Amino acid sequence: AGRWSLEGMTALVTGGTRGIGNAVVEELAALGAVVYTCSRKESELNDCLKKWEGLGLRVSGSVCDLSVREQRVDFIQKVSSAFDGKLNILINNVGTNIRKPTVDYSEEDYSFIMKTNFDAAFHICQLAHPLLKASGMGSIIFISSVAGVVAISSGVIYAATKAAMNQITKNLACEWAKDNIRVNSVSPWYIKTSLVNHLLEKENFLKSLVSRTPLNRVGEPEEVSSLVAFLCLPCASYITGQIISVDGGMTVNGFY
Ligand code: NDP
């Protein structure tokens, strides 16, 4: 494959039916990768798979709730048999949020956010490591958030899961470099997806976001998937352990 192609590569994208994950599936497949994905809703997943087949993209997938440990083990077994034990690209995209003042969080809220955002990504890395190593050229991307970089009002548990992802990006980049696995993190600011559309519909909320954003708007899923794809390409072969924000300039904005 060429420097700017993913031809011949295998990719796992968690949560590919909507939003950022959906854009990443399409971007990687369009660059030539064979992609495997998952979501919790069977009918939505089947609709996506049908659409991708119609577009000539090579994507398969299965239903899985990645917040459940046993389902993660089964899921990686399916990925392994689909790809003959070799995985080049792992995109840890699944994530969720519950927004509350810190003192209002219940134990259930805490564990739901932790297991969906951090436990799933960590455990999938452990499970996928032999497959990534076996491919000879591996790349892991965490879809983190600017909430793991600076303090924003997204909820403290969500922020902690994203900061944890950003930290293990650095640790795994060092630990797994010997296996020729690169590890990077992509940290978006507000992107128009089903996760946050209900917030973006509130005019005052949107105004306050945009006023902090030098580019003066929120982002599109395709503006995240392009960076994710770049980091997976052979031409990004010297980039590892990095946390890159896709934020219209928000995190570098002092007194805009
Ligand atoms: P969406 O909610 O729009 O999409 C999430 C996708 O993941 C869906 O396909 C969903 O399908 C799937 N999913 C969710 N939970 C699970 C689960 N437990 N098991 C399997 N699949 C699951 O989210 P976004 O695209 O907005 O977010 C993607 C990532 O980007 C998240 O990690 C989020 O934190 C991060 N992010 C998003 C930002 C934004 O503004 N949108 C900003 C910064 C970061 P289903 O529900 O059927 O399972």
Describe the overall structure.
This protein has 256 residues and is an alpha/beta fold. Helix content is 44%, strand content 15%. The chain has eight helices and seven strands, in the order βαβαβαβαβαβαααβ. Helix 1 links the parallel strand 1 and strand 2. Helix 1 crosses helix 8 (222-232), helix 3 packs parallel to helix 4 and helix 4 packs parallel to helix 5. The termini are far apart. The model has no long low-confidence stretch (mean pLDDT 97). Bound molecules: NADPH dihydro-nicotinamide-adenine-dinucleotide phosphate. NADPH dihydro-nicotinamide-adenine-dinucleotide phosphate binds at residues 15-21, 38-41, 44, 64-67, 93-96, 116, 143, 145, 188, 190-191, 193-196. NADPH dihydro-nicotinamide-adenine-dinucleotide phosphate binds next to helix 1 and strand 2.
